[in-house]
Amino acid sequence: MSLSDSIDNSIARCREQVKSLLSEYVVPSKSLETISAKGLLEKTEAKVVGMMSDVKEIFDLVSLIRPDATPLLLRDMMSIEKKLSSYIEVLKQDTINPTENTRIGLEQLRQTIAEVSEFVSRAEESSKSPDHTMSLVLDVVERSKSSGKIDALGGELKRVISERDYLKKRVEDVDYVLSSLRSEKATLEDALSQAVAQLQMAEEESKKWKQEALQNSLRGVEELLSQLKAQVESLRSENERLKLMVRLERARYFNLNKQSKEKTGT
């Protein structure tokens, strides 16, 4: 069987698994929510494990003929594997309300099946346009099977597989770095939010302090003006009193002078 036939068979088998899970557990999911989580696990575990096995086989086969598609297919495969592991773990949990875990598990299964369908379509599309170099190698392998020269290509295939494994490792490293960067970004955003909140509080306190300081200054000025007004009024009163005394003194002097003249005349 050629590699192309193997890919087609794996894709067909995986699609049958998807179709079976859809018809038996996703479409009638509402009616299945009443069964226990462990009961659902017993019914579906073998099928989801088989589906994951098909996904891995498709990945391995398509990666051979389309190395450039490996990063994207690997990311999809890892996401599917993570979701299926979570699905199984949820159904295995002992909870007070097992049917709630059943509902959550069915929703996870629905999402995972959607991802598997996308993965299979992407892998099938990639397999239809294999890498030119890999096509030549595989063609030589097929022709060499009948001539007994297959061993001569072992080193080349090992090299290709080694490069593929290296690429897988690099993708995992990149995903880890991206995850770390996302975590740092979240931490920085949280710190920035706290700093902005503290700055707003400081601005509010500053406005409040300035307002209170201004009010205190205005009260001080008003008190000073009041004191000055009182002093002015006091000075005015004293001035009027002095004027009155001057007038009285003048009148007294005038009278004394008048009396003196009258005595002299007599």
Describe this structure in words.
By secondary structure, the protein is mainly alpha-helical. The protein has a domain of 146 residues: Up-down Bundle (Four Helix Bundle (Hemerythrin (Met), subunit A)), CATH 1.20.120. Helices cover 89% and strands 0% of the residues. It is rod-shaped. Helix 1 runs antiparallel to helix 3, helix 3 packs antiparallel against helix 4 and helix 3 packs parallel to helix 5. The chain starts with a helix and ends with a helix.
Short description, anyone?
The chain contains seven helices and no strands. The chain has 266 residues and is mostly helical. The relative contact order is 0.07.
- Count every beta strand, where a strand is a DSSP E run of 2 or more residues: 0
Net shape: rod-shaped
* CATH architecture assignment of the domain at 3-148: Up-down Bundle
Radius of gyration: 48 Å
Stretches with pLDDT under 50, minimum 5 residues: none
What is the C-level CATH assignment of the domain at 3-148?
A: Mainly Alpha
Looking at the structure, the CATH topology of the domain at 3-148 is Four Helix Bundle (Hemerythrin (Met), subunit A)
Distance between the ends: 169 Å
Largest sheet: none
Structural class by helix and strand composition: mainly alpha
Strand proportion: under 5%
Number of helices: 7
Estimate the mean pLDDT confidence: 82
